[in-house]
């Protein structure tokens, strides 16, 4: 096992360097944002830091290979990684830098309800949400779309769902890319991906994906919270899911395809899982166009879940969703590659388990958030808290306008299943007033709170590093999982 404590160089109490001299072929340094406490956990795993160094060897990488405090081992790129590539300097695009679940992301829906307003309805709400929003491996949608409709959804995202009546007038204004990322080309998606995706719109899936009803437990910045429509004791809904089998198949298809063309572009990899292609090549563009299809699929997926959530609340509480003010606070991706402008250059920014964090005044912000910055939505584990943060100016300089995306695992799924007992887990959650509905016992055990880092420490690290700032802490009261 490597002695990472000797390799890493301390820049500040919250920022550490893997010098590019660490490994042959590194073009830039690796940068890790973490407190010393979290860094010790990261070092213990070890493999994630090696992956940060590996990413630094890729062609056209700019500035740094970056790791957030929730970093852990992933496919090729570590989960919790950020890297930007200059397409004019041979910069690449890599499916491993996006992840298999393209545009896995988080959405928060506000309400005007307080916890006491739904206390007596919690069981009914949990049952209704579990029924209306299918979860689990291979979950089948309650929506049926034809091939031509699926094509339009992946090409147009929320613009098309609006025509079908599944959105409110203002929904798109509080979604990254307004829920319709340009550049999609359905012809670049395989028939297998289309088959896998057709019946999965409006479903959560399995693993760490969930639907939670939460209560705003703590407010850290009253002014910003007010502008976000948040207040203490408020009921909000968090949705965490992505592009399901559709995105997974696109990633699989292009990883195999890129494996075959590495020699064509004279790309030598230190890890085959970093398979990539120059962004400006035909192959790189094909993947990008297919990835955008999956991104629009994911935003549409979360939108259809929102439609069902509004319906469930309306039916259980016998009030219209409009009267409950169930508007979208924000929706942000945390597995994506995007062409963005940084320091006057167009760069291909990969965020894998990382969240965009734009500061106030940024031109890409919706008008309602121009004077506060972009909401950064951070899910924790089902037994503790989630957080809402806001992007800070330092994120532009330090991390390509990126922040963390969640708690980050400390136990593998296999270890969690061995260590956790279902009865004791459910007892603990019940004692905290949390109602759980899960499709499988395995998922429940894999997602136990002890499988994750302490999300409050992760959030503290990015706040101390100055890249995002806490606005609220939310605790779960209903959890729906796969």
Notes on the protein architecture:
- By secondary structure, this protein is α+β, with helices and mostly antiparallel strands.
- It has a single domain (4-90, 104-481), classed as tRNA-splicing ligase RtcB (Alpha-Beta Complex), CATH 3.90.1860.10.
- 33% of the residues lie in helices and 23% in strands.
- The chain is built from 16 helices and 19 strands.
- The chain has helices at 4-7, 36-45, 47-55, 115-118, 122-132, 147-156, 158-164, 191-198, 222-227, 244-259, 282-317, 394-399, 413-419, 422-431, 441-446, 455-464; strands at 9-12, 15-18, 29-33, 61-72, 79-85, 92-93, 105-109, 210-219, 235-241, 277-278, 328-333, 335-342, 345-352, 355-356, 375-378, 386-391, 402-403, 435-438, 468-481.
- The strands form 4 sheets. Strands 7, 8, 9, 11, 15, 16, 18 and 19 form an 8-stranded mixed beta sheet that branches. The chain has a 7-stranded mixed beta sheet with strand order 1-2-3-4-5-13-12, with helices on both faces.
- α5 (122-132) runs antiparallel to α11 (282-317) and α8 packs antiparallel against α10 (244-259).
- It is globular.
């Amino acid at each position: 096992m490597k002695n990472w404590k000797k390799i890493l160089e301390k820049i500040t109490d919250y920022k550490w360097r893997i010098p590019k001299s660490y490994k042959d072929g590194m073009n830039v340094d690796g940068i890790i944002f973490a407190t010393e406490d979290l860094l010790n956990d990261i070092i213990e795993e070890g493999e994630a830091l090696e992956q940060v160094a590996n990413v630094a060897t890729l062609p056209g990488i700019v500035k740094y290979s970056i790791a957030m405090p929730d970093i852990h081992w992933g496919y090729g790129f570590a989960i919790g990684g950020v890297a930007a590539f200059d397409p004019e300097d041979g910069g690449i695009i890599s499916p491993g830098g996006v992840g298999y679940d393209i545009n896995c992301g988080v959405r928060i829906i506000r309400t005007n309800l307080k916890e006491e307003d739904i206390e007596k309805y919690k069981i009914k709400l949990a049952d209704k949400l579990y029924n209306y929003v299918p979860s689990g491996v291979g979950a089948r949608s309650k929506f049926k779309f034809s091939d031509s409709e699926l094509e339009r959804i992946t090409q147009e995202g929320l613009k098309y769902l609006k025509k079908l009546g599944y959105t409110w007038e203002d929904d798109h204004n509080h979604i990254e890319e307004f829920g319709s990322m340009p550049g999609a080309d359905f012809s670049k998606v395989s028939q297998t991906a289309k088959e896998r995706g057709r019946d999965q719109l409006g479903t959560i899936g399995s693993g760490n994906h969930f639907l939670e009803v939460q209560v705003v437990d703590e407010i850290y910045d009253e002014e910003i919270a007010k502008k976000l429509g948040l207040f203490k004791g408020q009921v909000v809904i968090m949705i965490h899911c992505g592009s399901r089998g559709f995105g997974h198949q696109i990633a699989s298809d292009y990883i195999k395809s890129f494996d075959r063309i590495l020699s064509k572009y004279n790309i030598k990899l230190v890890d085959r899982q970093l398979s990539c292609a120059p962004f400006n090549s035909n192959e790189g563009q094909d993947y990008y166009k297919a990835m955008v299809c999956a991104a629009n699929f994911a935003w549409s997926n979360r939108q259809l879940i929102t439609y069902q959530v509004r319906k469930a609340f309306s039916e259980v509480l016998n009030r219209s969703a409009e009267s409950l003010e169930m508007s979208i606070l924000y929706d942000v991706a945390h597995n994506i590659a995007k062409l963005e402008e940084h320091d006057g250059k167009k760069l291909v920014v990969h965020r894998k388990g990382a969240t965009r964090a734009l500061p106030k005044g940024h031109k890409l912000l919706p008008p309602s958030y121009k004077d506060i910055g972009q909401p950064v939505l951070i899910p924790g584990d089902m037994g503790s808290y989630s957080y809402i943060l806001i992007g800070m100016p330092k994120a532009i300089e330090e991390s390509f306008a990126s922040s963390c995306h969640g708690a980050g695992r400390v136990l593998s799924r296999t270890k969690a299943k061995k260590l956790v007992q279902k009865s004791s887990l459910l007892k603990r959650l019940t004692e905290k007033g949390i109602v759980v509905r899960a499709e499988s016992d395995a998922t429940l055990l894999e997602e136990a709170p002890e499988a994750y880092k302490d999300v409050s420490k992760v959030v503290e690290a990015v706040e101390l590093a100055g890249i995002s700032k806490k606005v609220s802490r939310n605790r779960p009261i209903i959890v729906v999982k796969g």
